[in-house]
Amino acid sequence: MDPWGLLVTSVSFAAFRGLHWALQLLPTPGSAAQDRWKWRNICVSLVHSLLTGVGALLGLLLYPQMAADPIHGHPPWALVLVAVSVGYFLADGLDMLWNETLGQAWELICHHLVVVSCLSTAILSSHYVGLSVVSLLLELNSACLHLRKLLLLSHQAPSLAFSVASWATLATLALFRLVPLGWMSIWLIRQQHQVPPPLVILGGTGLVTVGAISIALGIRILVSDVLRSRPHSPIPGHKETRGTRGCCDGELVTREDSTLNPGSNPTPGSRCMEPASPSACVSASLSLSLCVTIINK
C-alpha cells in the first residue's frame, strides 16, 4: 500500500469538492440558469478530464515504459495521476447523491464505484499503473464531450463553436478512445497465457462491447451534429413551427406550441438532449477497461 496514493486521493477529493463549491459563487450563463447544478457538475468534470487526459498523454510520451510494461513499469508521479482521478470520481459520486435522487443517479453511481475499485487496485498494489494511465487517455475524448454538452446547455447549437466541438469529439473518439481500447484488447490477447481462459473471454467481451458502444456513439454524433445540421430544401406546403423544429442533437425539443396539441404549455428548462449519455459511456468504457487490471492481478 502506498500512503502517498491515499493522501493524494484525499486531497483530490477535497479539491474537486471545493471547486464545485467555488463555482457556485460565479454567475451561471443565463441560458443555463434553470440547470445550474448540471452546469457546475459538467464544468468540474471538464477540469478533471483535461487534467487527467493531458497528464496521461504527456506521461506516456515522456515515459513510454508504461505502455511497454503496463503492470510494473511506471514512474512515481503516474500513481499520483491515478489517485487524482480516484478522488474526482469519489467527489463526483457524492455530488450526485447530494443533488439527485438515487433513482436518477444509480447508473452513474454504480459505474463510479467500479472505476474507483479498479483504479484503487493500482493505488493499493502499485501494479497496473501503466494500464490505468493508458485508460485515462479516454478522458481526452470525455473533455470534448463535456464541452459539447456545455454548449448544448447554453443553447450555442448550431454555432461555429459547437461545430468545432462536434468535430473534435469525433476525432478524439477515434484517436483517444477507440485506439486505446484496441491496444488494451491486443495487450490482453497477448497476455492470455498468464490469464485463465474464462477471464480472457470475460475481459475481451467487455472491451469489444465498449468498442461497439463507442462506435455507435460516434455514428450518433456524426448523424445528429453533422449530417442533420445541413440545410434541407423545405417541403412544399410545409411550414416549420417551433413545435416541429428539431434540435441539432437529433432529438426533438420539447414542444412549445405543437399543432397536434394546441393546449400544450411550454416546459420550463426544455433543451436538446445529449445522445446516448456520453458521460456514462465514457465512464463505462474506462471502468470496463480497467477491470482488465483486476483480471491480471
Rg computed from alpha carbons, rounded to a whole number of angstroms: 21 Å
Number of strands: 0
Helix content: 55-70%
Q: pLDDT under 50 segments (min length 5)?
A: 232-297
Distance between the termini: 15 Å
Number of helical stretches of at least 4 residues: 10
Give the class from helix and strand content and strand pairing: mainly alpha
Instruction: Using the alpha-carbon principal axes, give the shape.
Output: globular
Major sheet description: none
- Counting structural domains, the number is 1
Average residue pLDDT: 75
What fraction of the residues are assigned to beta strands by DSSP? under 5%
Q: What order do the SSEs take from the amino end to the carboxyl end, as H and E?
A: HHHHHHHHHH
